[in-house]
Amino acid sequence: MSSVPRVSGKEVVAAFEKAGFYLSRISGSHHILKKDGHRFRLSIPVHAGKTVGVGLLKSQIENAGLTVDEFNDLL
Fold it and tell me: Which of 46, 36, 38 is nearest to 14 (CA)?
């Protein structure tokens, strides 16, 4: 099992879009992603020059129904 990567919010959003999620709206600096037929919505903070926290990213990966390895492949 791979470790959770240290990536920016823009990279996270791009990876989830490859997994079939789409940008529903932007609320402040958070990008809200949805997927048709999917139970959860994902809220990804996009701050210039900062990475997404490891705990938050791992939680969002699980909410998306992916494993860390699958997410790393999408990057």
Answer: 46
* 22 lies in some domain: yes
Q: Are 9 and 45 in contact (CB under 8 A)?
A: yes
% of the chain beyond a pLDDT of 70: 99
Low-confidence residues of the chain: pLDDT under 50: none
Q: What angle is formed at CA 51 by the lines to CA 47 and CA 56, rounded to 5 degrees?
A: 100
Pairwise CA distance, residues 22 & 5, whole Å:
21
Label the pairing between strands 42-45 and 22-27: unpaired
Whole-model pTM? 0.92
CATH number of the domain residue 63 falls in: 3.30.920.30
